[in-house]
Amino acid sequence: MSINGKVTTTDAVIRTENLTRVYHLEGEDIRAVNSVSLAIYPRQMTAIVGRSGSGKTTLLNLIAGLDEPTEGEVWIMNQSLRTMDERARLALRRERLSFIFQSFGLLPLLTAAENVGVPLRMRGVPSAEREARVREALEWVGLARRARHRPYELSGGEQQRVAIARALAAQPQIVLADEPTGQLDSQTGRRILELLRRLVTERGITLVVVSHDPMVMAEADVVHELRDGKLVETRYKLA
Ligand code: ADP
Ligand code: MG
């Protein structure tokens, strides 16, 4: 594909080839992801869309190395997940990837600032640097004044902003978001989507959003559509 000049598959941040995940359930085989080959390019918003049950979450988990393919392969920055052991995959997830979930995924007993700091603690970032990064990330999402609030003291949109701040503070190259607007009303969802777009334009992040929200499809630079686990169409936004 080509957007600004020539782009080749080696430029891809994420690549899958014939990626397949079969679940065995009560004697039945479910091809949740069925031979999907795609490439995801840097500094773009890529949407993976399709109805409920079409395989979006399974595909995202395979890309994140949280699940193992039955067949096929995933490359993250030209490194095959298959050739990495669990420790290397964990390191990759910690250092390069951040996640945003439909249900926000915040720890209920921690404040917004503490939630944003969790991934930095796990990585052993020294406390002064951690505090600076937490503050900057909360400011960036417009929640500096909510730093001491706990999730139950925040609206859904605010909780998702905290989750975006947490993703950002980890300084990832890739952010994977699973139905990030799924629990929000459309106006709040629109604002979250604008913030996600800014991750790409201002922070240079490669963003993959799994969604069946038409707003997400309209905003994305590239849309990959799944049906029954198969990639049926890829659409590019006109520049
Ligand atoms: P989506 O995120 O698009 O709604 P999923 O990836 O969650 O779709 O699911 C794709 C298909 O795989 C569905 O038919 C679902 O029922 C099935 N599936 C998902 N996870 C499992 C599992 N752990 N065991 C068995 N079947 C599963
Ligand atoms: Mg899903």
Write the topology of this structure.
Elements lengths: L13 E12 L2 E13 L4 E5 L6 H8 L7 E6 L2 E2 L5 H11 E5 L10 H11 L4 H14 L15 H14 L4 E5 L7 H18 L2 E6 L2 H6 L2 E6 L2 E7 L3
Parallel strand pairs: 3-8, 3-9, 6-7, 7-8
Antiparallel strand pairs: 1-2, 1-4, 4-5, 9-10
The chain binds adenosine-5'-diphosphate and magnesium ion.
The site of adenosine-5'-diphosphate has 12 residues, from strand 1, strand 2 and helix 1.
CATH superfamily: P-loop containing nucleotide triphosphate hydrolases
CATH architectural type: 3-Layer(aba) Sandwich
SSE pattern:
EEEHEEHEHHHEHEHEE
| Strand composition percent | 25-35%
Bound molecules: adenosine-5'-diphosphate, magnesium ion
Oligomer: single chain
**Helix amount:** 25-40%
Could you give the count of β-strands?
Answer: 10
**Overall 3D form:** globular
Distance from N terminus to C terminus (CA atoms, Å) equals: 13 Å
Summarize the biggest pleated sheet: 6 strands, mixed
Q: What number of domains?
A: 1
Helix/sheet category: alpha/beta
Radius of gyration: 18 Å
What's the rounded overall pLDDT mean?
A: 94
Numbering strands along the chain, what is their spatial order in the largest sheet?
6-7-8-3-9-10
Count of DSSP helices? 7
Protein architecture, described:
- With 239 residues, the chain is α/β, with parallel strands linked by helices.
- It has a single domain, classed as P-loop containing nucleotide triphosphate hydrolases (Rossmann fold, 3-Layer(aba) Sandwich), CATH 3.40.50.
- The chain is built from seven helices and ten strands.
- The chain has helices at 56-63, 86-96, 112-122, 127-140, 156-169, 186-203, 214-219; strands at residues 14-25, 28-40, 45-49, 71-76, 79-80, 97-101, 174-178, 206-211, 222-227, 230-236.
- The strands form two sheets. It has a six-stranded mixed beta sheet with strand order 6-7-8-3-9-10, with helices on both faces. A four-stranded antiparallel beta sheet has the order 2-1-4-5.
- α3 (112-122) packs across α4 (127-140) and α4 (127-140) crosses α5.
